[in-house]
């Protein structure tokens, strides 16, 4: 297996930040069942969103796709 020529934490910083934020919200009890605020969403919904975020990140890494930060940087350079 070849070693990656980039740091995952740097390349996928946006994706990792989204996962970190979702986990922090859950840690603070930001779910509808506890907060009563619909914007927080149900626990099952939050877990499904987190599962999707992790799967998308792993897929990007597995397939050698650029991270969101790199994609946005390319868009800005091409403007």
> Total number of β-strand segments?
0
Q: What overall form do the CA principal axes indicate?
A: elongated
Q: Would you tell me the overall average pLDDT?
A: 96
Sheet bearing the most strands, described? Answer: none
Strand content: under 5%
**Regions with little confidence, pLDDT below 50 for 5+ residues:** none
Using only CA atoms, what is the Rg? 16 Å
Q: How far apart are the first and last residues' alpha carbons, in Å?
A: 37 Å
Number of H/I helices: 5
The structural class is: mainly alpha
Fraction of residues in H or I helices: 55-70%
The arrangement of helices and strands along the chain is: HHHHH
Q: Overview of this structure, please?
A:
It contains five helices and no strands. It has helices at residues 8-11, 13-27, 32-35, 43-63, 68-77. Helix 2 (13-27) packs antiparallel against helix 4. By secondary structure, it is mainly alpha-helical. The longest helix is centred in the last third of the chain and has 21 residues, at 43-63. Helices cover 68% and strands 0% of the residues. The radius of gyration is 16 Å and the shape is elongated.
